[in-house]
Write a structure and sequence with these properties.
This protein is mainly β. The chain has strands at residues 32-34, 39-40, 45-51, 54-59, 65-66, 71-74, 83-88, 94-99, 112-113, 119-120, 127-130, 133-136.
Length: 137
């Protein structure tokens, strides 16, 4: 599949599956990749998380991996910033900001908890608490 990042106002939504016989629109200039196998460890990849109540793409730390079925961002070049922040404005205004003066540590091996304080598995989707900080998974 093609990974996408979708933004919307906070509300309840019901998403319906597309007609399997229809031809999906072509997605161009998409830098997101879908992990079909475990990725990480030696690759420069960024995973979606949350810092200071903002969605960010954080550099996956050495020794950690991202399991299959997750989306990630590969940014080539010598400037491997600790994270890229995401700003989503009105309409189609979007951008990714580079901030090399901060650091995120995504400890993929730490226990995960939901907002009710219950321990959850790695396959859990939504907001998780890791080492006292909230992340979007």
């Amino acid at each position: 599949g093609t990974p996408l990042l979708i933004a919307a106002e906070s509300a309840s939504y019901i998403l319906q599956a597309a007609d399997p016989t229809s031809v999906p629109a072509e997605v161009t200039d998409n830098l997101l990749k879908a992990a079909d196998n475990t990725v990480g460890d030696g690759q420069t990849i960024y995973v979606l998380g949350k810092k200071d109540d903002k969605a960010v793409w954080g550099l996956l730390t050495s020794g950690n991996t991202l399991s299959a079925g997750k989306a990630y961002l590969v940014i080539d070049g010598s400037n491997n910033a600790p994270f890229y922040s995401i700003e989503i404005g009105e309409g189609e205004t979007t951008r990714i900001n580079l901030n090399a003066n901060d650091n995120l540590n995504f400890d993929q091996n730490a226990p995960l908890y939901n907002l009710s304080g219950q321990r959850v598995s790695d396959s859990y989707k939504g907001i998780v608490i890791v080492n006292g900080k909230k992340y979007v998974k």
